[in-house]
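Input sequence (294 aa), recorded before submission:
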Amino acid sequence: MLLVGTADGLLDLALDGTEERRTLVGADVVAVSGDWAVAGGWLMALELGRPVDLPASLAPRCVLALPGGRALVGTSDARLLEVGGPDGVRRDAAFDGVPGRARWSTPWGGPPDLRSLAVAGDRLYASVHVGGVWRRDATGWAQVVAAERDGHQVAASGTTVVVAAAVGVGQSDDGGDTWHWSDAGLHGPYCRAVAIADGWVLASASPGPGATEGAVYRRPLREPRAPFTRCGGGGEGLPTSFARNVDTSELAASGALAAVGTPEGDVHLSDDAGATWRRVAVALPGVRCVGFTS
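Predicted structure, C-alpha cell format:
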C-alpha cells in the first residue's frame, strides 16, 4: 500500500493508483510512517483515530513507526520523543544533552528541527537541521556527520547509512564511522531527499535551496564512487526535472518499490528501484509526503 499525505488529508493508494481509503480530511499531512502521521500540526495515531499530546511548545516534524505500535517523533527545537508505549510520551533525555546542542542553528536564524529519523538493527540515526547527523547505539549518542554538511534526510539499511545534504550524498558502509561524499553525476550538489531501494540509492538534487530545477537520481548502493544517473523521462514516467526541489519526505522506498510525490499533486511509482516509473495519481491537493505500508 502507498501512503500519500496531501494538503487535504491522507490517502491509502493501491499500487495501481486506486484509492482505498481517505482519512484526516482537511488536514495538511506532512509526514507518515506506519500507523502514525503528522497532520495539521498534530501527531496522529491513525489506528486510534486521535491526536497524541506532546510536551508544551514542541511541534512534531517527523515520525518513524516502530514495532509494537510505538513510534519515534522528531520535533521542533530538535527533541526526540517515543510514543505509543506503556509509559506514554517519553523524552530522550540523553539526546537533550548531546555536546554542542547550544550551537545548533538554521540558515534563517531560527531554532533547529529534528528533520528525519532512520533505524537499522539496534542503531538509530537522527538528522538535525542544522545540527548534524547523530547515531544512538548501545554506547549512547555520537555525532557521525558534522553540522556543516547541512544534512537533510538520513536512511539506513544494515550497516549502510546514506545522507542527503547540501554538499551531495554521503554514504557510510560501517554504520557511520567513515564516509564517502559525492555529487558526481548530479546537476547540482544540493540534496534534500534520499532513500534505499533494493540495492540502489535514490536521491533528489538541485543547484541550491531556491532552485527551479530539481531531479531524482540513483546509484548502485555497493558502488559509492560511481556517478549518479538521472531517473525518469518518456511517456507517463517520472519527469527528468521538476520546477523545484524534491523535498525530504517526498521520496520514499520499500524493497524494490519507490515513490515520488510533488506539490503539484502527482505521484510517481517505480517497482524496480527507480529504473522505470509510472504515474499513479494526478491532481491531488498538493502532495506533502509519501510512504509505504504492508
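Checked by second reader. DSSP finds one helix and 28 strands in the chain.
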